[in-house]
Specification:
Lipocalin; mainly beta
């Protein structure tokens, strides 16, 4: 009986201690950082438990705010749109080490603008 208990305990430890599995919970929370390129400024967004991303991108050049909305996968792949008053993409990768980076683009206002972003989880 004692051997069976130790065997089951060991099996549960191996099953329960797998830290390699990424889950959306590794990314839930507030993220913020800066962006640069044809425009520059700061951004922030919140990732919820379903992977939904909602936030804002603020242009230091135009002194305007643009909405960020999209989704994050369980592996940290970010696919978001930059909305009103612009139209573009905010894509990249978030890591379990609380760092993120990627590319952004805006087709409005004209001329089209693009660049890179980086940031971290707060």
């Amino acid at each position: 009986m004692k051997k069976l208990f130790l065997l089951l305990l060991t099996a549960f430890l191996f099953i329960g201690c797998s830290s390699d599995d990424d889950t959306i919970y590794d990314y839930v929370g507030t993220w913020s950082g800066s962006y640069e390129g044809n425009d520059k400024g700061v951004w922030n967004f919140v990732v919820d438990e379903s992977g939904k991303v909602v936030g804002t991108m603020h242009s230091d050049v135009n002194n305007e705010n643009y909405s960020i909305s999209g989704n994050l996968s369980e592996t940290g792949d970010l696919n978001a749109r930059v909305g009103l008053p612009s139209q573009g993409d905010f894509k990249g990768t978030l890591t379990t080490e609380k760092k993120g980076n990627g590319n952004w683009s805006n087709s409005l206002p004209t001329p089209a603008q693009s660049g890179t972003w980086k940031g971290e989880k707060k």
